[in-house]
Amino acid sequence: MKWKIISILLFLSFGFNLFFVYKIFIKRDAGQLGNVTPSYRLTNPLAKNFVDSDISEQPVILHYVELKPKIESEIQKFKAEKNIGIFLQDIQTGAWVGINEKEGFVPASLLKVPIAMAVLKKVNRDEIKLTDVVELTKDDLDSQAGSLYQKGAGTKLTVWEAVKIMILTSDNTAKNVLKRQLSGAELNAIFAHVGIPNPYQPQNGQVVTPRGYSRIFKALYFSTFLSADLSEKLLDLATDTQMENLISAGVPSEIQVSHKYGERPDGLSDCGIIYNPKNPYFLCTMTKGLNLPQAKELIVNLSRIIYGYVENK
Q1: Closest CA to 279 of 248, 244, 255, 247
Q2: How far is CA 264 from CA 84, 110, 212, 268, 270, in A?
Q3: Residues 9 and 73 reside in one and the same domain
Q4: How far is CA 129 from CA 55, 120, 159, 164, 174, in A?
Q5: What is the CA radius of gyration of the chain?
Q6: CA–CA gap between residue 165 and residue 186 (Å, rounded)
Q7: 43: which DSSP letter?
Q8: What is the pLDDT of residues 43-53, one digit of tens each?
Q9: In total, how many domains does the chain have?
Q10: More confidently predicted of 25 and 152
């Protein structure tokens, strides 16, 4: 009996010591490493403090010094020096290069990503659920982009179904029904969070810049606005959009690109994250004053040049 008691006490003592070591050393070290969660494929929450694009006003950091002439040469072929804005930033180092990166462009459907983020923020706060049902009204119906309008007023769908339709097919009707679920303050919160003027407010000129809009995808990648789970969910959705013939066409087919495009009569835009295994990067391209075939060709060519440079360097 005496030896049984001694054995139990020794076992408890050993267990306590293991717990103590875990708490003091292992858990402490995990905290110092930023609690990196490798289970996420498309986000990198809490990995490290990111070098934001506004820290340095130098137009080129050495990392991309050989790339800028290649970009400029391609733009000159299209005589588009004043018609394109581009912002590229390495996720790991913060190194960046830009052409007209602070020039204002009409965002068009690029604004559907902030709407999705504002809606998912309400999910984060447990104010709504992805399975909640919304109903189309006559005012929601918009035939300019997408086909959801054909189902007519009174059509019911879940919040997540509406988000999927809006992002995957850039559907205006889905955008309208989701935007109707948001207050002005809730929509403005995403723009305030990333530090860019809300283009929905007329006094801001209803434009965005390539450099500024890239912060939308930074907020998703680093999960600074939404939870890591919802950031991952939205980025995963954006890897399978209907328009995969812009920046996606300039990278190998096996490389994931999470992005959103915008189309206007006088140009195209496409912005997102290119998940190069060695050096993932943010890329935002915007055009104006170019016909659509020209804009498409230029964006694809620039994406191909940039990916090749990143891959080889």
Answers
A1: 255
A2: 14, 11, 19, 6, 12
A3: no
A4: 38, 9, 7, 15, 17
A5: 23
A6: 21
A7: -
A8: 888 554 444 54
A9: 2
A10: 152
